[in-house]
Amino acid sequence: MDRIKIKDTDLELSRLGLGCVKAGVKWAGQEAFDLFDAFLDMGGNVYDTARVYSDWIPSERGRSERVLGQWLAHSGKRHDIVLVSKGGHPDMTGPDPDMHKSRVSERCLKYDLEESLRVLGTDYIDIYFYHRDNEEVPVSELIDIMEDFKKQGKIRYYACSNWTTTRMKEADAYAASKGYRGFVANEALYNIGEPWMKPMADDTLVIMDKEMQKYHEENPRNLAMPYSAACNGFFHKLFANGRSAVSGSEYYTEGNLRNAERLHELMEEYGISVTQAVLGYLTCQKFTCLPLYGPRNIADLKEAMETFRIPFRMEDYPQK
User: Fold this and answer.
1) pTM score, two decimals?
2) Which of 34, 49, 207, 221 has the most other CB atoms within 10 Å of its CB?
3) Domain boundaries, position 94
């Protein structure tokens, strides 16, 4: 698989990132180890986790990082991968999490980072993300926190997730004024179904809108890493089980039902799977994308990885 090189870094990233939110939940034990091995064998190297992943399931915090850390210890492959994790997410352990109760502070970030390092069994994280923003805190303070982690050798690079374009530009300007490298990547919600979806229940999630897309076109030093790249399985479920299976989804709109018709045509035209048709949208943008994908199993992962061999064109897809 080709590699994405981020300007002014030594990072070389696979074109698809393995979203590890399911680790310890949908895939655990040997099944998880086999999937992690398969991703590496197929040419992948970006493993994306977070301190908060699966905290919404009672009895254990940080399952995803634990399972990934166990695989790293077992496989000895730490130096073969690009390890991504995130901190500063609101607490998800209670019955009704308050997504507006910010944990984006120096104290919370230090705690999350130390826990991530401990559970992952590593001395450093390759790319460490703010999982959320707190717009009441000046970007200068937040960049300085990450720079401190970097100076301590606990992270190699830092990035943001669910930040607005305005805040990213402010962070870029501050980092440049101090001679810092600044953010190397941005995780935001972006996929083929997003332009037609209903408003999300969690309004702290940030969509990669037209302004942000233009930002990434003009700023290749900050790599776009779309999450929910496969629309949370909306089109998979729709094709497999019909409209009743997806009627409660935020993607269930007339626009996305029309999208489904075009995807079906595309699948027949190229002889491809729904996974490939959906992810293909992210391979033909005007800016470089590294989508994050959480596969159901190894066969699904293989399909996803083969997406990047297909010569998709932007005109293959509906536009809004």
Assistant:
1) 0.96
2) 49
3) 3-314
